[in-house]
Amino acid sequence: xxxxxxxxxxxxxxxxxxxxxxxxxxxxxxxxxxxxxxxxxxxxxxxxxxxxxxxxxxxxxxxxxxxxxxxxxxxxxxxxxxxxxxxxxxxxxxxxxxxxxxxxxxxxxxxxxxxxxxxxxxxxxxxxxxxxxxxxxxxxxxxxxxxxxxxxxxxxxxxxxxxxxxxxxxxxxxxxxxxxxxxxxxxxxxxxxxxxxxxxxxxxxxxxxxxxxxxxxxxxxxxxxxxxxxxxxxxxxxxxxxxxxxxxxxxxxxxxxxxxxxxxxxxxxxxxxxxxxxxxxxxxxxxxxxxxxxxxxxxxxxxxxxxxxxxxxxxxxxxxxxxxxxxxxxxxxxxxxxxxxxxxxxxxxxxxxxxxxxxxxxxxxxxxxxxxxxxxxxxxxxxxxxxxxxxx
Length: 392
Hints:
CATH class of the largest domain: Alpha Beta
Number of strands: 11
CATH topology of the largest domain: Rossmann fold
CATH architecture of the largest domain: 3-Layer(aba) Sandwich
C-alpha cells in the first residue's frame, strides 16, 4: 500500500494551541485534507508562542505553530459574526470531521454546538477536546498543564520520595490528549462510514492523565494501598551527560559482570534483594564510580550487551542525530516562506508502506481564495467584501 491511508477524508480544524491542532496534524500527515480555521485578528494564539528564529517573535515563524500545522490549508473566519457562522455551516456540509478544543460552552454559545452541526451534516464527527470533558462538575473550571497533572494524580507519583511531587517540563498532556483524540476520531469516522451517522467525540484531558497510571489505580482498588514515589529509576552522571539505570537491585544477576566487579556477589550488603534496597546508596556510589570516566553512549552499549535496560538521557542534539530516528525517517526538513528551512518530527506511527504526507504550515489566511472561491463558490468581489467586514 502506497496511497495515503486517509486520502479523501475532509477535516475542519478549529483548534488552538496544542491538543486539537496536534490531532488534526496527525490526520493531515496520514493524507486527510485539513483546513485550519483561524480568527482574522491574530490567528491561532500558538502563532505568538516560541521558539522563534533568532529569538525574534513573528506570527509566521513560531516553531510551535509551524510544527502543529504542517500539511494543512489555512483560512480565516470570524465565528462570532452572523455571516461567519453561516459560512462555517457551509464548510461543515463539506467536511467529515470537525476538531476543536474550546471550552465546552463556546460552540453552543455561538449556536454551533453538535446538535446544530448534525442537522447541517448528519454524518459529521465533532471531536471536542477540553480540560475536564463536556460534562461533570469541573466542566467549566480553568486549568493549565500543571492543573491536570495534579488533579489527574500523575504528579503524586512523579519525582523522588524525599522531594515534592513533580511534573514533566513539556506539555505532554496536550500531546497525549491530541493522540487520544486522533484515535477516537478514527473510530467515529469508521462508524460514520458504516452507518452514515456522525457523533460527538468527547476527550477530557484530565482522563487522559488518569489513564496513564492505571496500574496504581488498580493497585488501590485491589489492595487499598497507595503507590508512592520511589527511587526505582536512578539517573546517574556519566563523563559527558546522564544515564538512566532502572532498579539496579532488580537486575542484580547481571550487574556485577557489567561493571567488572564479580566480587560484589559475595558482599553481604548486596546478598539479598532486601539488603540491596537497604544499601541502595552504597550501590549507587559504586555505580557512579564506574560510570565517571565513561561516556553515556559507552555505558548504554555495555549495559545493552548484557541485556540491562539502561539508556542514556538524550539531548535534543542526540535525538536529531540518532541513527534510529534517521533510519525510520522520523524527522523531515520543510521549507517555509517566512521561517525558512526547519526540521520537524513526522509521525509516531507507520501504516503499511505509505510515506507520511508532508507539507509546510499555512500563512495566516493563505488559502482563503481557494477554499472560499473554489470550494464554496464565492467570487473575488465577495471575498473583498468579507475582508472589509472583518468576516475573513
